[in-house]
Amino acid sequence: MGRFYVTTPIYYVNARPHLGHAYTTIVGDALTRWHRLLGDDVHYLTGTDEHGLKIQQAADAAGKTPKEFADEIAPLFEQAWKRLNIANDDFIRTTEPRHRVAVETLLRACYEAGDIYLGTYSGLYCVGCEEYYVADELTNGTDCPIHKRPVEHFEEENYFFRLSAFEQRLLDWYDSHPDAIVPDFRANEVRGFIKGGLRDFSISRRSLEWGIPIPWDPKHVTYVWFDALTNYLSAVGYGQDDERYRAWWPVDYHLIGKDIIRFHCVYWPAMLMSAGVEPPRGWAVGGWLLVDQEKMSKSMGNVVNPLDLIDDIGLDGFRYYVLAETPYGQDGDFTRKGLIKRYNADLANNLGNLLARVATVVGKKCGGIGPRAATDSPLAPAAALAYEHAAAAWDNVQPSRALEATWQLIRATNAHLETNEPWKAEPGPVVDAVMGDALEALRIIAILASPAVPSTAQTVWERIGMSGAVTDERLPDAARWGGYPGGAAVVKGEALFPRRSDEDDS
Ligand code: MSP
């Protein structure tokens, strides 16, 4: 038990929430829900990135001021996260005063440490990425490798952050924190970047108006990444509420996409070291959810709206798919066919079917009252293993593995019923024992599945006759065999996940 602070990237307000944003946010939600079950005091932060040229241009195109524009889009993220049942504790917007204070404090600290200096920048810039590129990073010699659009030639006076001075300190830090980045192969990638040599990076623009002025030279506006990264500190009171900041920092995990690894795992810890702030404890780097093998983005025109998917497959059907389908860290390919296939296999046929048959047999053979499980049940070892594997998987930020472990228990319970065929037996102690085992397994399954499918888990919980909220359970005790009290009414109810017949024509 302890504190557990997790963040998502803050999303640019030039686009509406899409499946890619939802993906990272759902992973963070499930991870933090798991930690709440462990009894941790959790702080889950998400928010919006609202400054910079990209937003200014999007606002211009919409005929609005950047603030008006951001005020319209930011709530769409908040609303989307509500509909996705995201239990974030805070939502930060970089246009808030608390953020400005933190950015100013961090800038001053780095400046006073001698790591910020004035210089001239000339280079090839992608507005989409808000980043300079060198010629050999470009596609066909002219285009941004991510946005596939020509980069622009920029030259201006900028403040720079002396990243080059941090090469060795960063390598040493990563040497002494070998598990800080998951999955492993991303840690090697980061070491590779650092060893390849670090160039100082620009942290201000004179040409830009929409942003936070550099406190000692307000002709300059803070460059978006210095601004954006600092949100993780602003939200916990850096520069304002020292006690609160000290309680939450360092963050336990920054969840990020692989596209922003260099900013988060190289620039950010160096900025923090410069300012005398401890680097993060961890980063969990996710792959991209691709649609037809392309990254989803407004400029590619292949954006999938997560809210449409909720309408199609249901909230927990969607959450489950996102968490179970792709091992976190790898790229996944989103297809509607895959969505329906997984829904039918894991939710309709496995979990849904298990609950329905248990409720039916308890109704018919046990008078509708759930019997207590035997202490020496053959399912007890399977349940212990499910917990052990799920816990290890969440420890490594691997939701798909945690769910796989949980679904093993579902399959084992279904198999136990099939072997014993209680539906064919006469009511009595034998049937009671089998059904007590199945109910106890369902109790544990509801707890283990609750981070991924919270409302379904609560329904299972209530239907098997448990009282209170499944989220109030505390691990590891709650996962120990024998917690099902017996004697409560078991309710059949409607199918949890009605089978979809359109698996082959989607
Ligand atoms: N504003 C910056 C992040 C600043 S964090 C201090 C930004 N915003 S973004 O809206 O463009 O994307 C943020 C993140 O959303 C990506 O890094 C990634 O984590 C996630 N995703 C966006 N599109 C995605 C996919 N298609 N697939 C998976 N995740 C993706 O970058």
Helix content: 40-55%
**CATH superfamily descriptor of the domain at 335-489:** Isoleucyl-tRNA Synthetase, Domain 1
Give the helix tally: 17
CATH class of the domain at 335-489: Mainly Alpha
Structure classification: alpha/beta
Strand content: 5-15%
Q: Can you count the beta strands?
A: 17
**Which overall shape is indicated by the principal axes computed on the Cα atoms?**
elongated
Average pLDDT score: 94
Largest sheet: 7 strands, parallel
CATH topology of the domain at 335-489: Isoleucyl-tRNA Synthetase, Domain 1
Radius of gyration: 25 Å
Please give a quick description of this structure:
By secondary structure, this protein is of the alpha/beta class. It has 17 helices and 17 strands.
Could you describe the 3D structure shown?
With 506 residues, the protein is of the alpha/beta class. The chain has a domain at 335-489: Orthogonal Bundle (Isoleucyl-tRNA Synthetase, Domain 1), CATH 1.10.730.10. It has 17 helices and 17 strands. The strands form four sheets. Strands 1, 2, 3, 4, 8, 13 and 14 form a seven-stranded parallel β-sheet that branches. A four-stranded antiparallel β-sheet has the order 6-5-7-9, with helices on one face. The protein has a three-stranded antiparallel β-sheet with strand order 10-12-11. Strand 2 (11-12), helix 1 (19-37) and strand 3 (41-49) form a beta-alpha-beta unit. Helix 2 (53-61) packs across helix 3 (66-83), helix 5 (167-176) packs antiparallel against helix 6 and helix 13 (336-365) packs antiparallel against helix 16. The longest helix is centred in the C-terminal third of the chain and has 30 residues, at 336-365. The chain is elongated, with a radius of gyration of 25 Å. The chain starts with a strand and ends in a 43-residue tail after the last helix. The model has no long low-confidence stretch (mean pLDDT 94). It binds 5'-O-[(L-methionyl)-sulphamoyl]adenosine (MSP). 5'-O-[(L-methionyl)-sulphamoyl]adenosine binds next to strand 2, helix 1, helix 7 and strand 13.
